[in-house]
Recover the amino acids of this structure.
């Protein structure tokens, strides 16, 4: 029994390290995609002084703490976001392994979640959702849904159409009645991608929880800003977080909701 537990812990640690390494690459994507830069080259460098990062200073998570959160060359502070994303990606890979085991669903859902991590942090920083992820992501994750996750083609197709169509109608209605831009088309494409991969039933969960927590955060921000209603809150991170939550708890939600119906 102790041997089995030790092997499980060693496997989990190995997966966490692999996920953290991939998270380091996601940091590159988050930093470079909004600026239209290549994610392949040149090698990573300090965003403050531009000096290339040495290979021994590029160890996921550990390097941040070894360097005390500062660049070795210019001693300017490094954002903790880098280590957070690496740890988050490693943690997600372990959790997905515990849910799906050594099955094709594991890499499919991990790639899906990795895309959502990139989308979330780009949207938080720049308030954009890059088409370079969502537009190819819609057909790719639709196929992954049908061929790997074993959803029916109709379930995935309805998810795609209803997901994109719902937010498009909300965006159109808000713009029509208020004469102002509300929800961007990036959110529309994102929900289409989420629906294509998770199916139409997921949209109830995703829309409810993303709206609830988005509104909750919005109220908190308005109170902190002393009633300032003009602060823009990106919706993409809430959609992404709800989609990840659905991967882990959506079966329970769907069984309860549709069983009750």
């Amino acid at each position: 029994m102790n041997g089995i537990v030790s092997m499980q812990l060693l496997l989990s640690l190995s997966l966490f390290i692999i996920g953290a390494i991939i998270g380091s690459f996601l940091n590159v994507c988050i930093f470079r995609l909004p600026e239209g830069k290549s994610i392949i080259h040149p090698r990573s460098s300090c965003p403050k002084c531009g000096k290339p990062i040495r290979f021994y200073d590029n160890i996921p998570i550990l390097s941040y703490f070894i360097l005390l959160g500062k660049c070795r060359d210019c001693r300017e502070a490094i954002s903790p976001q880098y280590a957070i994303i690496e740890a988050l990606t490693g943690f997600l890979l372990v959790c997905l392994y515990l849910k799906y085991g050594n099955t094709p669903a594991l890499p499919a859902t991990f790639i899906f979640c990795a895309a959502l991590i990139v989308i979330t942090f780009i949207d938080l920083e720049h308030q954009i959702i890059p088409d370079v992820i969502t537009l190819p992501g819609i057909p790719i994750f639709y196929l992954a849904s049908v061929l790997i996750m074993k959803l029916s083609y109709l379930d995935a197709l309805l998810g795609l159409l209803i997901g994109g169509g719902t937010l498009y109608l909300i965006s159109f209605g808000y713009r029509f009645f208020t004469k102002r831009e509300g929800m961007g088309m990036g959110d529309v494409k994102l929900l289409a991608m989420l629906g294509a991969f998770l199916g139409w039933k997921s949209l109830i969960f995703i829309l409810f929880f993303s709206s609830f927590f988005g509104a909750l955060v919005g109220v908190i921000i308005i109170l902190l800003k002393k009633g300032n209603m003009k602060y823009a809150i990106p919706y993409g991170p809430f959609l992404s977080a709800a989609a990840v939550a659905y991967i882990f708890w959506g079966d329970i939600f769907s069984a309860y909701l549709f069983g009750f119906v």
Observations:
- The two ends are 44 Å apart (CA to CA).
- The mean pLDDT is 87.
- Residues 2-32 form the longest helix (31 residues).
- The chain has nine helices and no strands.
